[in-house]
């Protein structure tokens, strides 16, 4: 089964930072969920949200028959985005790829999507740990792309704002634990979040790649976000899928 449902388009499912910072050009996106997995912060990261000395923790998927993971699917024309994703997810992140079925939030569409998954067979794997320990590690780690706290809180905020029906005890418990730790240790939330804005356009309409160059540096803020929420912005640098394992 291929993750394409018309013409030469492939769909990629994001359940971590891809939800709010895809980093590649795409035709359209949709929010929804996949089945058969749970999201877990069991994958280590030394290139984006941590260092070799202090690896951060980022999301991966673990198989669970009754599991449901909410996120965002992106329709990518041909394979233009895959060299970028291969480097970001596979080469640097230690992820492999497989296929799942995506179900749109409206319930009127389902189609195959490519998903990136890290397993205990890669060198960055950290595995299961008490949530208090994971929260402590996240609050203490940062890397070239920013603090590990930003990764966690932006993902949780995306779910709260765009998929309020999402049930994810692991993610939301970590969010509460990290926020509590930030308060207890008097850490500056603005600094942890990188003092930057990201705007997300979730309209299910085709995005003209010719008009996207200006989006690479877009950081427009609005004033209607609720307290402690964060703004998201579409950033899409240009970039076949050699790490695909089905």
UniProtKB/TrEMBL annotation:
<dbReference type="GO" id="GO:0006751">
    <property type="term" value="P:glutathione catabolic process"/>
</dbReference>
<dbReference type="Pfam" id="PF04752">
    <property type="entry name" value="ChaC"/>
</dbReference>
<keyword id="KW-0456">Lyase</keyword>
<dbReference type="GO" id="GO:0005737">
    <property type="term" value="C:cytoplasm"/>
</dbReference>
<dbReference type="InterPro" id="IPR036568">
    <property type="entry name" value="GGCT-like_sf"/>
</dbReference>
<protein>
    <recommendedName>
        <fullName>glutathione-specific gamma-glutamylcyclotransferase</fullName>
        <ecNumber>4.3.2.7</ecNumber>
    </recommendedName>
</protein>
<comment type="similarity">
    <text>Belongs to the gamma-glutamylcyclotransferase family. ChaC subfamily.</text>
</comment>
<dbReference type="InterPro" id="IPR013024">
    <property type="entry name" value="GGCT-like"/>
</dbReference>
<dbReference type="GO" id="GO:0061928">
    <property type="term" value="F:glutathione specific gamma-glutamylcyclotransferase activity"/>
</dbReference>
<dbReference type="InterPro" id="IPR006840">
    <property type="entry name" value="ChaC"/>
</dbReference>
